[in-house]
Amino acid sequence: MPKRSKKTMTNLMLGLLTVLSIGLLVYYAPALIKIMSSMDNFRDYIHSTGHWGPIMFILFQILQIVVAPIPGEVVQVAGGYIYGTTIGSFYTTIGLILGSAIAFYFTRFIGRNFVSRLLQKKEYKWTSFIHDEKKFSAFLFIFFVIPGLPKDMLVFVAALTSMSSLRFFTILLVGRLPWIIASAAVGSTIHMQQYTIAIIISVIAVVGFVLGYMYRDKLMNLFSKVEKTKGKSTPAKPKALPSFSRE
Question: Domain VTT, which positions (predicted)?
């Protein structure tokens, strides 16, 4: 098959997939909103699926990352509310890894041009240093570790860079795992009506968000300097970076 025909077919398939995803999301949106309208509704739905409950919960987490505009913290708190801190964190982490892997490898091997054009249209300010792997790694870690910030789009962005998948998923887990556990703990303590503990964790999360947002630039510069120091001690061959040229 000629290269241009193959590219046309890929774009057509991506377009159809996008339309199908939007259509399914709109069709099922009322049911999703009803299920997620309260912790009790979500728990009742998960329990109603019987032995499939953990799989359904993981699918909700995957859906939240890949498609649906559901805040990640809602699912994470619900995990603790339904299963407790330990099991809830475990299921949420599995969903996080699977959902992020789908988004990451889809973008890297199939939808690179589609996502690249989408980012160009949005003109995000931080795309100016997307080609600087050390600075972008620091940015990813800071963004992941600050609670409350929308993080899922960055999975697609990271796939456009030359960053290795091992490096990306390490940053993802190290940055997000503490707050996954904290969110599950909030859900668990709410379920057990230990509201004092839930309030303390929530206050810490809010303070972390405010401080992280206020000092994000300084933190990013600090981590960038650490990365540069490591880079000088172990020089590596430069990698070819992806192009963002319009086609």
Answer: 70-188
Alpha-carbon distances, residue 38 vs 41, 45, 57, 112, 231 (angstroms): 5, 11, 15, 37, 48
Neighbours of 34 (CB within 10 A): 12
Eight-class DSSP state of 38 = S
Record the pTM: 0.75
Q: With DSSP H G I counted as helix, E B as strand and the rest as coil, what are the percentages for the chain, rounded to 5?
A: 80, 0, 20
Task: Give me the helix-helix angle, 72-83 and 85-109, nearest 10°.
Answer: 150
Inter-residue contact 103 to 65 (CB < 8 Å): yes
Distance CA 221, CA 206 (A): 23
Q: HSE (CB half, 13 Å, CA atoms) of 103?
A: 25
Please give the structure tokens belonging to residue 159.
Answer: 């796939």
| pLDDT tens-digit readout, 192-243 | 888 788 788 878 877 776 776 676 666 556 555 555 555 554 444 444 444 4
Q: How far is CA 172 from CA 10, 136, 163, in A?
A: 29, 13, 13
Task: Using alpha carbons, select from 133, 183, 177 the residue that is nearest to residue 158.
Answer: 133
Helix axes 165-191 and 195-214, enclosed angle (nearest 10): 140
DSSP state of 29: H
- Distance (Å, whole) CA 145 – CA 161: 20
Nearest to 222 by CA among 142, 129, 168, 157: 142
